[in-house]
Design brief:
The structure holds two protein chains of two kinds.
Chain A: H1 2-14, H2 17-35, H3 41-52, H4 57-82, H5 91-102, H6 106-139, H7 144-162, H8 166-181, E1 183-184, E2 191-192, H9 198-201, H10 206-225, H11 244-264, H12 273-294, H13 306-321, H14 323-329, H15 335-346, H16 353-358, H17 360-389, H18 396-415, H19 418-436, H20 442-464, H21 476-515
Chain B: H1 3-23, H2 35-38, H3 58-76, H4 90-116, H5 128-148, H6 150-164, H7 170-192, H8 200-204
Chain lengths: 516, 205
């Protein structure tokens, strides 16, 4: 009950006209970047970071929360209308969603996506509000050794699970860790990798890294793809609408999707992709079973509304779920969360148990603002989804020129320093190289944000034990986390071996038929 | 955070792969990629395509160079005498060593792919001209920003990038560029109190 009272207090604090405006702006912006391909909420939050320096933390986080939720929904719009997922979390929606649009049921697909996102955000946020304090109570027992184990766990999970290739994921993570080492070492005050430049003594600002890798790197990548880049021709859509029959078919997938998203959101490295695909798979299996048992027609493959309702609610509730470890432990589990952690740090706040104790009002306001964000999501998107799709008709040259302009602005605004622009250029080229060669950038971002934390905790632990390394495995929590690290490292390996075996089996089966 | 949670991840992985394999029959089961990424781009997934040709060595070389710099740093960083151990060099040393291991790993993959001849050239689609143009625009902007001011440096950047992306209505582009740049400058100084350099306009006004 305490939780609910706190949440109500937070709601009261968040419901100022000014904050509502920021939430509105955030959802608007988030939906826009979610719709535009190649841009996600992570990039939008990164571009907003310097702008929000001048806001108070509450307003800034309300803005970010709006962007996060809006981005999740915006991706669905293009998935359904264009078969082009704006970001990875909406890939699962394309399969059934676009087929529905082709059958003239775009309005229903958008409707179930919006309302599903809304339901999922509300439930997901309540789950966060209930579980974040539990996480905090758990985290109060954490010492430097446990925190180090936790960072190692997220490194391995992010690098191994999220990326298509483990080797490239690990390389990306290491590049991020290397960038994070530049500057004055927090423990001893020694200058590291400054190469004689006084600007580098402060380290490479996280804004430069995110804007360079995500925004500008993307612009360069699209430029390099030239004519092979996706193009968006005419699309038609109606106003999102759900009839009674569709509503009846949608509500269970919404709840199932929400449950999956909430379960996976807090797990480092699982991201939004896994729960969305899991939900799509579950809905398909259930539809098959319904067809077998009750003779209800299985529409999967031809545009089943369940295949939109499930994944869409899963991705929004997983967005809420990532807030649990972010607020409770200070552990980002997605690129957007990593940038939000950086934002907390800019305000001198360190998420985790201490934040809950010292800035409890801020935390509850943030959680309440997630609720406001969900309501605004519904209000903005239910009537205006067709309008949003028009965004894709924006001339491409102006769109990318605009992104470039804002990237430069965001970085220059940090400290009005031209040196930062030079650093941005270098990082952007790095981003282009990584993208061109298919090295994922999300692990690098997590590395930049978490690397210094990992190092500090590691050295603090060893300093506390006067150099005795056994402190790293001194508690059950850290041992448990290292076991999870081992599992996270082994799981993709098993998957790889299984696929390889499956592949050889397929070849075995095919060969005889070819001979005949 | 419980062991059960990881089990769920496992099933998620496998379920996800089943999902994709059934929906996209074009995906050959032999490709060694996780399904989630298979669907990311409809044509080829850059995250799992093998590299070939000279370009294949760009990322391994990058990792190796970064690794060498980090290891070099580990040995040359001078810890203050009162510093606790492990000192400031330990972490760079470890990261550097791992980067070198990753570089070696990628080289081995490259060599194996070169032998089997299955890899595709990653740069077949790469168009250098627009990239160079955008980069040139950024360099010019960086160089000019504090001399000519945000308004013109920003507009020039916008115009060059638009040109690189194929905009050819020069006058209209210039007008759009100037209005964008002006809107940003006004919005930022009025709304957020952030002063962007005015350049020579400051002298005139």
């Amino acid at each position: 009950m305490d939780t609910l009272i706190n949440l109500m207090d937070g709601l009261a604090a968040a419901l100022t006209p000014q904050n509502l405006m920021w939430a509105f702006l955030g959802v608007l912006l988030g939906t826009a970047v979610g719709i535009l391909p190649g841009m996600g909420s992570a990039m939008a939050v990164a571009l907003l970071l310097p702008v929000t320096f001048r806001l108070d933390p509450t307003s800034a986080f309300i803005l970010f929360a709006g962007v996060y939720y809006g981005g999740m929904f915006g991706g669905a719009t293009t998935s359904i209308l264009l078969n082009t997922p704006g970001q990875a979390s909406s890939i699962a929606t394309t399969y059934e969603g676009h087929k529905m649009a082709l059958k003239g049921r775009a309005a229903q697909a958008l409707g179930t996506a919006v309302i599903g996102s809304f339901v999922a955000s509300i439930i997901g946020t309540l789950v966060v509000a209930l579980f974040a304090p539990v996480m905090v109570a758990f985290a109060l027992n954490f010492g430097p050794g446990e925190y180090f184990a936790l960072t190692v766990f997220s490194f391995v999970a992010v690098a191994a699970v999220v990326s298509g290739s483990v080797l490239r994921g690990v390389t990306s993570l290491l590049i991020g860790l290397a960038i994070g080492m530049v500057g004055i070492d927090a423990q001893s005050g020694t200058a590291r990798f400054d190469f004689g430049s006084s600007s580098l003594l402060d380290g490479v600002d996280i804004v430069i890294v995110t804007v360079g890798l995500l925004a500008l790197g993307e612009v360069l990548y699209i430029a390099a793809r030239g004519k092979s880049a996706p193009d968006f021709a005419a699309i038609r859509t109606g106003r999102p609408w759900l009839g009674r029959k569709d509503l009846r078919r949608s509500w269970k997938p919404w709840l199932r999707g929400t449950a999956m998203g909430s379960a996976f959101g807090p797990i480092p490295g699982s991201g939004a992709e896994i729960p969305t695909f899991l939900s799509l798979g579950l809905e398909r299996k259930l539809a098959e079973r319904r067809a077998r048992r009750k003779g209800v027609k299985n529409e999967f493959g031809e545009g089943a509304i369940e295949g939109v309702a499930g994944p869409e609610s899963a991705n929004n509730s997983s967005a809420a779920g990532t807030m649990v470890p972010l607020l409770g432990l200070g552990l980002p589990t997605s690129a957007t969360a990593a940038i939000m952690l950086a934002a907390f740090q800019q305000y001198g706040l360190q998420p985790g148990p201490v934040l809950f104790e010292r800035n409890a009002d801020l935390v509850w306001t943030l959680l309440a603002s997630l609720l406001i964000g969900s309501v605004l999501l519904l209000v903005i998107n239910l009537p205006f989804a067709p309008l949003w799709a028009k965004l894709l008709k924006l001339p491409k040259p102006y769109l990318y020129a605009g992104i470039t302009l804002f990237s430069v602005l965001a970085v220059y605004a940090i400290n009005t320093s031209v040196t930062h622009l030079v650093m941005l250029l270098v990082i952007a080229v790095l981003g282009l190289v990584m993208r061109t060669f298919g090295v994922p950038v999300a692990p690098a971002l997590i590395g930049v944000v978490l690397g210094p934390i990992a190092e500090t905790e590691f050295r603090r632990a060893l300093a506390a034990s006067s150099g005795d390394p056994s402190i790293l495995v001194a508690s059950g929590i850290s041992v448990g986390l290292y076991v999870l690290v081992a599992v996270a490292a082994v799981v993709p390996l098993i998957g790889y071996l299984r696929k390889r075996r499956a592949a050889t089996r397929v070849i075995d089966v095919q060969e005889p038929t070819e001979k005949v | 955070m419980s062991p059960k949670g990881t089990d769920e991840t496992t099933t998620a992985e496998t379920e996800a792969s089943e999902t994709v394999e059934t929906t996209e029959s074009t995906v050959s089961p032999g490709t060694e990629e996780t399904s989630v990424n298979t669907a990311e781009t409809t044509a080829v997934d850059p995250e799992t395509t093998a590299w070939s040709g000279p370009a294949a060595w760009v990322v391994p070389a990058l990792a190796a160079i970064l690794g060498l710099v980090a290891v070099w740093g580990a040995f040359t960083i001078e810890a203050p005498p009162n510093a606790t151990r492990p000192g400031p060099g330990a972490f760079p040393g470890a990261v550097g060593a791992l980067l070198l291991v990753a570089a070696v790993g990628m080289s081995v993959v490259n060599l194996r792919n070169a032998g089997s001849g299955t890899a595709s050239a990653p740069l077949a689609w790469f168009e250098g001209r627009p990239v160079v143009l955008v980069l040139a625009g950024l360099v010019v902007h960086t160089a000019l920003l504090e001399f000519v001011g945000w308004l013109f440096a920003g507009a020039l950047l916008f115009w060059i990038v638009a040109y690189a992306f194929g905009a050819r209505a020069y006058l209209r582009d210039a007008i759009v560029a100037l209005s964008m740049s002006a809107a940003v400058q006004v919005g930022f100084s009025l709304g957020l109190g952030l002063n962007l350099p005015g350049g020579f306009l400051e002298l005139v006004l």
